[in-house]
UniProtKB/TrEMBL annotation:
<protein>
    <submittedName>
        <fullName>Uroporphyrinogen-III synthase</fullName>
    </submittedName>
</protein>
<feature type="domain" description="Tetrapyrrole biosynthesis uroporphyrinogen III synthase">
    <location>
        <begin position="19"/>
        <end position="217"/>
    </location>
</feature>
<dbReference type="Pfam" id="PF02602">
    <property type="entry name" value="HEM4"/>
</dbReference>
<dbReference type="InterPro" id="IPR003754">
    <property type="entry name" value="4pyrrol_synth_uPrphyn_synth"/>
</dbReference>
<dbReference type="InterPro" id="IPR036108">
    <property type="entry name" value="4pyrrol_syn_uPrphyn_synt_sf"/>
</dbReference>
<dbReference type="GO" id="GO:0004852">
    <property type="term" value="F:uroporphyrinogen-III synthase activity"/>
</dbReference>
<dbReference type="GO" id="GO:0033014">
    <property type="term" value="P:tetrapyrrole biosynthetic process"/>
</dbReference>
């Protein structure tokens, strides 16, 4: 099958290059133009006996937390998305439950199970959740900071293409950099909230069926070939 429209992958490593590899394996014309860089932060594990469970909403947290992640292994672990669950399992933390939508929905499931003291392994810049009466303690273990787009960014977005948005921050940054001239561009978002953060005016927006890379790339594949015979 023809490669279709170019696919622009904007998420940072670790993860961005893997997404490009998966996209190319699907026959897509994938280009890696990261808009952020991710780096670990120094952190100290709290007294885990104070918590009922560990919530992890991003695979980046599992990948960048470092060897001290093992100190949290005795807590029941709740993960958003299969990629996060896989990264945690690879780090030696068995996953109690994998959420198929987003952090807010998984938090709702946890509180419905009478889990009220929750440690949240997360980024320095993070979403705001309705805690639903639970005590949610953020433990930042990594940071994601914006970087200047690659020199070829302007040329790539000047022509029809599909952009991937893996997070609300990512979608908002894409929207800011693209500006108002976007009617020729398509966007694949990993969740409805991410799609909303990208705003309106795109030629098409597709939302992944699940919050993971495989589902997002399936949506991107459809967008890259939409209208082609």
């Amino acid at each position: 099958m023809r490669a279709g429209l170019p696919l622009i992958v904007t998420r940072p490593d670790p993860g961005g290059a893997a997404t490009v590899g998966r996209a190319k394996a699907l026959g897509l014309d994938a280009h890696y133009l990261p808009l952020f860089t991710a780096a670990p932060l120094a952190w100290t594990a709290p007294a885990i006996e104070c918590f009922d469970a560990l919530l992890v909403t991003s695979a980046q947290a599992a990948r960048l937390a470092g060897p001290d992640l093992a100190r949290l292994a005795s807590l029941p672990v709740y993960a958003v998305g299969s990629a996060t669950a896989a990264a945690l399992e690879a780090a030696g933390l068995p996953v109690e439950m994998t959420g198929s939508t987003d952090g807010q929905d998984l938090l709702g499931t946890m509180t419905s199970r009478n889990i009220h003291n929750i440690l949240w392994l997360c980024a320095r810049d993070r979403s705001i959740f309705d805690t639903l009466g639970a005590t949610l303690v953020p433990l930042p273990c990594y940071a994601v900071d914006p970087i200047d787009p690659a020199p070829e960014w302007g040329q790539m977005i000047a022509a029809p293409a599909v952009l991937l948005a893996h997070s609300t921050r990512g979608a908002a940054r894409i929207s800011e950099l693209v500006g108002g001239s976007r009617a020729h561009l398509r966007l694949a978002a990993i969740s409805p909230k991410v799609a909303a953060a990208a705003g309106a005016g795109w030629a098409a927006i597709g939302v992944a069926e699940r919050p993971d890379d495989a589902a997002l790339l399936a949506e991107a594949h459809a967008l890259c070939h939409k209208g082609q015979k």
